[in-house]
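Class, discuss our next protein.
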Amino acid sequence: MVAHSFIRKILVSLACTVSFLGFWIVRQPNTQHKYNDFFCPGHVTPQITHNDTHVGPIQELTPDGNTTVLPDFGPSPYAYVFYATKAEYACSVLINIDRLNNILHTKHRIIVIVKHTISSQYLSLFTAQNATVIPYEPPPLYDNDDSYYADVLLKLVGFRLHQFVPSLKRILILDSDQIILQSLDHVFSLPAVDLAAPRASWQGLSGFTSAFLLVSLSDRLWDRMEFALQTIKHDVFDMDLLNEMFRETAMVLPGDYCTLNSQWETNSIPKWWQGSEPPRDPVWKPSRKLPPTPDPPPIEVPPSLKGPLSANNTRTLSEHDQVLLSEYRNATVKRELRIQAAKEAVEYVHKQQVLKDELKERGKRLSTTLEDVYKDVKVMHYTALGKPWQRYLAEVEKARPDAHPLFAKGFEVWRVKAAEICPWGEEEYVV
């Protein structure tokens, strides 16, 4: 039985490998995805992928039927890996691939793991940029937890890529809702560990981010990951799972490998930066506290209650006076609540004004410093004010008028390139 199972795995593995060397597998209608080690990722119709050989250029039919010539990647055992499950994320993948190829001139392969919903237009654009396209249905979360993160575990299929591309030794898995600012080719030469990832400095002292994962591929590691995916628990997502698995063994990289764009939204210096922060002018003070609002007039005591209340004796009141007393006490409580609410409102307005004043002060004082920080950032992750495809540039500038100019610039860089190279970008991503 054990031998039969082993032979079955070998045969399925060979079938999967063959499918990725240019053969088409027809998807069975109404086939529901079930994560299973014996299922080849070709249970969705695979698009043409780059041939994992080193014999020179190859020709294959792209999904739309055109012939594309793909040059050989050469002997590099390393690859950048992206994943895409929706069109806007596919656009962001394309932008980063374009940067890797045409600005940063990477020497390594690029692989995109895609859900079957990604259009053939994007698949053709990926392959035209010499990227390998691998279709794969995302492993499910526990009982379909949180639809926002429904497909996030697709990135972890990257731990299996050496089974499809045997020459791969190490990969860098990157989320697509970020932008690569500097060459990352050097990370493949870091000391060999199962996993390396930047510290998630925005979450406190412990933990690393799952947006940047340097993985040394092996069957041993994939076996661990596969078991973790099959036994995932409620309310556990990619970052939770990875930190639980590798908390004691991961190599933690500096924060400049993945920095949130919120640093330029709030004009704040990240803790990882080793430069010096200009001190605040000691005479600077935020705006004067707003004057308190006048209290509402006191509640007048009914004449028949003045004596009993002053004597602290209300037990012998008539039925009529008991009603008056209840109304008086309710009115007094409501007045106190109004006073407290007014004070809290004034305090809130004051705090907001202080925060705005401090934001402006930091923006002026740290303008040059924040530019220096930006020059050190390797990858910038879009978190503040949503994703770049969700906001026009004018909306960003209006919503964050006191943010550093580089905050809006991050949106602009993405949107300009999206309008240039994404299939529906010309209409959708007008700056």
User: Anything to note?
Assistant: The mean pLDDT is 80. Residues 319-365 form the longest helix (47 residues). Residues 142 and 234 are 5 Å apart (CA to CA). The two ends are 62 Å apart (CA to CA).
